[in-house]
# Entry
Amino acid sequence: MYNNRFIFALFFLFFTCALFAQSGHVKGIIVDDENNIVSNVNISSGKSSTQSDANGFFEIDVVSSKKVSIIFTHISLKMISLTVNLKPNEFFVFNPIMSNSEEQMGEVFVSSKNRKRVQGIATIDVTAIKKVPGANAGVENILKTLPGVNSNNELSTQYAVRGGNYDENLVYVNEVEVYRPFLIRSGQQEGLSFTNTDLVQNVDFSAGGFQAKFGDKLSSVLDITYRKPTRFGASLEASFLGGSASVDAVSKNKKWSAVTGVRYRNNSLLVNSQDTKTNYTPTFADLQTNINYDISEKWQMSFLGNVSQNKYLYQPLTRETKFGTIDQPMALNVYYEGQEKDQYDTYFGALKTTYKVSPSLTLKLIGSLFHTTEKEHFDILAQYRLGNAAAEDGTNETAVDFTRGIGSQLNHARNDLDALIANVEIKGSKDWKESQLEFGLKYTRESIRDRVVEWEVIDSAGFSVNPPLVMLPKNNQPYTPYEGPLLPYQNVRATNFNTINRFSGYTQWNKQSEIGSNQIWFHVGARFQSWNVSGAAVEGKNQFVLSPRAQFAIKPDWDMDMVFRISGGLYHQPPFYRELRDLNGVVNPNVKAQEAVHVVLSNDYNFKMWNRPFKWVTEVYYKSLSDVNVYSIDNVRIRYVANNNAKAYAQGLDFRLNGEFVPGTESWVSFGYLKTEENYENKGYIARPTDQRLKFAMMFQDYMPNIPSVKVYLNLVYNTGLPGGAPAYSDPYLYQNRLNDYRRADIGFAKVFVDSSTQNAKTGWLKNFKELSVGLEIFNIFNNQNAITNTWVRDVYSKNQYAIPNFMTSRVFNIKLNARL
# Structure
């Protein structure tokens, strides 16, 4: 009863705030034509007036339901005039660029600015991406704070969305699809994600029910646009985890522009905080560039290029892990020999040309080439001792006063992969009146060369442990001699040369209209894909799928600024190479596309609280999946069964409250509930590996009131435990383990010496900088022990197996320098 009253009171507060707001609201950040923040701009509309603050931020209330003009004036810059017509309590974001050369006047039809809102697309603030702390800071770090997006691994940039896995997310940069590595099995091997935060201009994200113009995946779309610079600039970032630098360049005639970035990362600071002591010498580096050329007002060309090399050199030495209970504390000591040498080299290039045939017709031609060579070579011998933990003896080594188990484990791999993926795509859009037609056609060729050789031998108390799923003579050692063969505990050997040819396309109709005084939007379309898998020893059949999708949104003519949306359709995910390869490394060329029916209901509510803008987003979703390709997850490696013999579902509820908890800065709080289960070969429904039941996250920005130049950033995530950590050979229908809850809070403090509001007041060497700050970051500030998997060790005496958690990183301190010229 108390909870119901609390929820009612909370919603009553939101609705009451909206009912009293009868004005429209315009806000934004003002910059000049060199992208410098402009403060003390006078903004007026009728009887309302205000000024932009030190961060260039402004907000002004205007008369609603009629055309009104807003005037922007500054003592040294030309005037800007803006005409708007807003609904009661409607928020309009306008970021003017004030010039010293010419006046700017224009009329804005706000209905066209609701596009992303009615499509269910979340736009992420780029400045927040660069500032919010995280072990893997960047776009993915922010995504993990959104509802429906889950990750229990701070060393990885991979994420799961609403019950999907890491392979079910689309990622575009400048409308070009990018790919994740094939052989990565551990988060600490990943190094750098493709997206370079220094080059980013815009980030859009959709967690489901997305439109037909986006590609063939089941879960989400991340759409990133790199910026097109207008002036020279440079930036630098350095920390104990690595560094980055970028340069913006523009030709004198403004036809050529380029933004180029280089990055280096070293995860030693994080890896050395784990239980395993290592000699760890990784080198993760990449170079990216985005070059633009304006041939004419109607014709533009651009090139996006990336070269990256990730070397992972890992030599484990010892491991000491304490676990168990207060009554029975236990310890595991492991001594290692051997090393792991991995290398992932990727080369990516995309050429895009855009031609505006007429004011209503635009065509684009995009070609891209992605080449990756990956090798994973290791021989690691682990000899362990399991026992009761003794009292601390003052040494660095965990004491064991009673040994329960001894043994060894030898892991070997010689895995090599070479993949070449080529794409050619033509797409366009045709506008007329308030409708738009979008279309596209794409050809993809994937050439994969793959060799898998990996095995594991396990010794327990001097006796070789045979594989669990192979019928062998009974082993009664040491009482009777064992006469059966000695086999590796796990053994995978395969060589695959495969080619996949794909044709895909889409068409989509967009329409904006009205029902009475209510605004409505339609987005109706369909995708198709046809593909065939061939190879030296396999020949698959031609397969074809059709995916109709639709969205409908309505904005009622209410005092409350609300948008209601329903979206969904039929979604297919034709198999990528990873999904074709089964647990034994053998390619099944006739794996079918996984199919999902999406239904998403959402409500988007803008309101004002504490006289500042806020947004409350609620989404309810359901997915019904068929032809499911069952998989298991070990750290970040996904292994598929590759037989489409399952069906599944995912259902959930997501909330997000974001707004200016602190004036001029955006923060948010997210909550999500998810349940996803699968039924394999009609054995019954059990939890899927991504069954993340509850999720809470917060991204908060603040500053110290008495010292406004000291900024504070908080990144907090709580996820309930995932199914996982069970032995690799176990049948999930007989035994399914669930990991502990994931709890993590990262906090950052930054002392700002120079920013846009203080640059003109600085003298000496500081006047050369547009931005300069030094920060302290504390990762995992509460030092929570989060486990990603379990190591299973046998007890000789009781013949039990113990799950020893493989803990992630502990508390780590980092110092970071940011500068921009």
Observations:
- The CA atoms of residues 785 and 807 lie 6 Å apart.
- Confidence is low (pLDDT under 50) at residues 1-21, 102-113.
- Helices lie at 2-19, 115-118, 126-131, 139-143, 268-271, 577-580.
- DSSP finds six helices and 46 strands in the chain.
